Structure to design on (488 residues):
């Protein structure tokens, strides 16, 4: 019997990705503050980019790795603070602990909504850690609660929760006894009583009388939870070289990631061995190639270039994304060639455009602007997004492109300038070279904050009264309460 088809709306999926990304970034910051040297282990865990046409199925590894101690940490952003994990009883690779080792940690970060949009979320600075080994032990002892999904919107995944008590506000613990934790809120001075008795048994108190507690802090649970995660050091290049020949795929992938940060000749040799091994998983080879390409080793650059034309589209897209992370001149040239290749799949070309934006080099300007004349909308969209990122670094160069561009290219250039901002009206006056350019200058200025632009707008009124009028009309429309109003 086939599994039921699950789905999530684009906005819901984007929101979940964004919350996960800001949670992982908060974990990286917290680990760094505690003496670790954390790097992103799972590619994409700090990004909320969605690729629709090609789905990349990456190696299941924790989100972060400390290069100094080798500790791996999986980030879990929570809109409701609890010790919980999604789980699939049907697909082993989607099990709650797939790809995790007992000594790995789960980092819990509470995220709160700060506005109505899908990206209007903020992560709490409080990061709490729980060991995977402790979670497994409690799960095997039937101390966890399994909840079935309510419907397709939730993706049909099971939710496993390890019961806990969470502080609803900051305060000071006044009493801890066999049955309750009592603490007094900082604001309002009201006493809060949290019971320790639950259906699965008694929660273990994690605080003592006199302790200060924070909003969303787990104060009792069936598993140990802590806010500290000290770096013990001890992870050497030799350790990672040994890991590179491990039977575990996740170990070899982590080793490739770590060795890319070590410049020793022995590490370069280990990375080259991984790239040359055609029986190795392609994503391990890509990670090893990235480490080599960053130090200018031809073997890494050549492998990345070949993978851009792999038989499988997901491998091509991953190679394009990796090149954006490598960020060298040669990486940029490979991406430019891919973007200009009309025989490439449109999403691969779009991926190359996106990665050129990540590199942020002004040398990518010509090819990105050229892309606005292609037929595939997905390529034009990613080229515009990339150009907006480059405009934040090289604003004058992008502004100078606007008057020289064709009527097919100007919409993308204008959108990029509108999104990047940071310009003044005087900089755009030289772009008023023809009727089409005047339209797009009006759009660029009219989509900026009215109050910020008003002190500069007189220069436009003198130079071109019609464009000035169009800008004021745009401000009126965009500032109206009906702008963006939906029927539902």
């Amino acid at each position: 019997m086939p599994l039921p088809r699950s789905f999530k709306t684009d906005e819901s999926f984007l929101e979940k990705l964004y919350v996960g990304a800001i949670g992982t970034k908060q974990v990286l910051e917290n680990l760094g503050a505690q003496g670790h040297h954390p790097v992103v282990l799972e590619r994409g865990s700090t990004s909320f980019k969605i690729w629709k046409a090609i789905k990349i199925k990456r190696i299941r590894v924790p989100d972060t790795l400390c290069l100094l101690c080798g500790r791996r940490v999986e980030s879990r952003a929570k809109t409701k603070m609890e010790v919980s994990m999604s789980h699939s009883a049907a697909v082993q690779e989607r099990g709650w602990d797939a790809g995790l080792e007992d000594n790995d940690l789960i980092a819990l970060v509470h995220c709160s909504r700060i506005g109505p949009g899908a990206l209007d979320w903020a992560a709490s600075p409080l990061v709490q850690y729980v060991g995977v080994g402790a979670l497994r032990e409690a799960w095997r002892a039937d101390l966890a609660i399994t909840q079935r999904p309510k419907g397709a919107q939730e993706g049909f995944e099971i939710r496993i929760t390890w019961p806990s008590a969470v502080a609803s506000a900051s305060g000071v613990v006044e009493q801890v006894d066999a049955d309750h934790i009592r603490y007094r809120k900082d604001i309002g001075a009201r006493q809060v009583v949290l019971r320790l008795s639950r259906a699965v048994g008694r929660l273990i108190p994690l605080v003592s009388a006199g302790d200060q507690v924070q909003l969303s802090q787990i104060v009792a649970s069936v598993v140990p939870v802590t806010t500290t995660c000290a770096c013990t050091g001890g992870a050497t290049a030799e350790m990672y070289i040994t890991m590179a020949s491990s039977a575990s795929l996740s170990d070899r992938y982590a080793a490739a990631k770590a060795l890319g940060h070590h410049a020793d000749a022995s590490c370069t040799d280990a990375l080259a061995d991984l790239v040359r091994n055609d029986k190795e998983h392609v994503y391990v080879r890509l990670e090893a190639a990235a480490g080599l390409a960053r130090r200018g080793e031809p073997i890494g650059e050549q492998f990345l270039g070949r993978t851009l034309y792999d038989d499988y589209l997901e491998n091509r897209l991953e190679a394009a994304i990796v090149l954006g992370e490598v960020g060298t001149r040669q990486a940029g040239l490979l991406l430019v060639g891919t973007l200009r290749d009309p025989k490439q799949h449109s999403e691969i070309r779009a991926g190359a455009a996106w990665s050129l934006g990540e590199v942020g080099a002004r040398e990518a300007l010509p090819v990105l602007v050229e892309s606005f004349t292609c037929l595939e909308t997905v390529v034009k969209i990613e080229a515009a997004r990339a150009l907006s990122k480059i405009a934040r670094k090289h604003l004058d160069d992008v502004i100078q492109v606007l008057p020289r561009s064709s009527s097919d290219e100007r919409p993308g250039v204008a959108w990029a300038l509108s999104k990047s901002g940071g310009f003044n009206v005087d900089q755009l006056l030289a772009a008023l070279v023809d009727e089409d350019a005047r339209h797009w200058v009006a759009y660029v200025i009219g989509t900026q904050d009215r109050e910020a632009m008003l002190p500069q707008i007189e220069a436009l009124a003198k130079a071109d009264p019609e464009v000035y009028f169009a800008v004021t009309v745009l401000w009126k429309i965009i500032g109206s309460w009906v702008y963006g109003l939906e029927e539902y």
In short: Residues 1-8 have pLDDT under 50 and may be disordered.
